[in-house]
Design brief:
Elements: H1 2-19, H2 21-36, H3 43-68, H4 76-89, H5 110-132, H6 138-157, H7 172-179, E1 181-182, E2 189-190, H8 191-209, H9 211-221, H10 223-228, H11 233-259, H12 270-280, H13 292-311, H14 316-341
Antiparallel strand pairs: 1-2
Helix pairs in contact: 2-13, 3-8, 3-11, 3-12, 3-13, 4-5, 4-6, 4-11, 5-6, 5-11, 7-11, 8-9, 9-11, 12-13, 12-14, 13-14
């Protein structure tokens, strides 16, 4: 009887650890850095972590859509870069000396933002069509898009009279989105953080309360079963890639606003951080599994690694090693769970 109770307790502990491992890692990471340097838990540090996490979270949420369908998206970072350049090029002040479009009047703020999001959506549409209609594996399809989008962005960035010069002199009403906040002092809440939270809520609703979300999980869980059950897999895959592209577009706009400028190298390698955050956050590489809270925590973990280890003076090279080990461990853990289910 005693052994049975011990066995049951052991299984309960194992189940708890498995279910909440990501949150345990986050807490341990924060505790470890705080012990080394107690000022890490200051309001300013936490604020900086949230600001740095905001655009990365939106990108990761877009990537999560794709991963849950058992796909992947290597084009996310380059789409972010393209949309950052597009929005920034149209939102410079009238008095800035090196304007991208010297004769462009001061347009309504919303128009370039919507245009950039539309550009991201179109990139996602192309990915979706290539994957769903041409049956090109997502890895290859999005790799091709990644290269093509970077080339397109570089051509646009090199247009006269800009000639590949960093885009600066952005309007204050635009940069305020990325640097402004509600309230005053250290307890103010940055707009960009509120936007990320709102986007996360919308994505949570899509994942959990819509037909699109239900079908997305079904496609990722077993695409053949999804087809047999009457789901139009191609249509929903295209929708999913379009939504992801729009999220990348929004992230590009926010990144340009936050940094006050843009170049064609914006977004480089962001897709790898996003994929890693998703995997660490519990999005299965085999599809069909993933949650919004998990993705958000995954993003926070990688932001804390980047910011926290720099904060305590750890070499950036060690940061890469730590991130790599975490990614491998997360994928190995995910594959073990998948093998156990089979």
């Amino acid at each position: 009887m005693l052994n049975t109770k011990k066995l049951g307790g052991s299984k309960s502990l194992q189940s708890f650890t498995s279910q909440y491992a990501i949150y345990i890692v986050l807490v341990l990471l924060v505790i470890g850095i705080t012990i080394y340097n107690p000022s890490f838990l200051s309001i300013d540090s936490l604020r900086n972590i949230l600001i740095q996490s905001s655009t990365r979270a939106i990108i990761a949420l877009g990537v999560a859509f794709i991963l849950i369908t058992a796909g992947t998206d290597l084009s996310a970072g380059r789409i972010v870069g393209l949309t950052a350049v597009v929005s920034a090029s149209m939102l410079q002040t009238a008095t800035y000396a090196n304007r991208f479009f010297p004769d462009l009047p001061q347009v309504w703020l919303v128009l370039p933002i919507l245009l950039a999001i539309l550009v991201g959506l179109i990139c996602g549409l192309i990915n979706g069509i290539v994957v769903a209609k041409l049956h090109v594996p997502p890895f290859i399809a999005t790799l091709g898009t990644m290269v093509a989008v970077y080339g397109l962005n570089s051509m646009y960035f090199d247009m006269d009279p800009n000639n590949s010069q960093p885009i600066g002199g952005l309007r204050k009403d635009f940069t305020k989105i990325g640097s402004g906040s509600i309230g005053t002092g250290q307890y103010s809440i940055p707009y960009i953080v509120l936007i990320a939270i709102f986007v996360a809520f919308i994505v949570w609703v899509i994942f959990n309360k819509t037909k699109l979300g239900k079908n997305m999980y079904a496609i990722g869980g077993n695409v053949q079963a999804a087809k047999v059950s009457g789901i139009n897999v191609a249509k929903y895959l295209i929708y999913i890639y379009m939504i992801a592209g729009a999220l990348y577009g929004l992230a590009g706009v926010l990144e340009a606003s936050r940094t006050g400028g843009a170049t064609n190298n914006y977004g480089n390698m962001y897709e790898l951080d996003a994929i890693a955050a998703c995997v660490v956050g519990g999005v299965s590489t085999t599809g069909g599994i993933g949650t919004v809270p998990g993705v958000m925590v995954g993003v926070l973990i990688f932001t804390i690694i980047n910011y926290g280890l720099t904060f305590i003076g750890i070499s950036p090279y060690w940061q890469l090693i730590v991130k790599g080990l975490i990614i491998v461990a997360a994928v190995a853990f995910d594959m073990r769970k998948y093998a156990a289910k089979k």
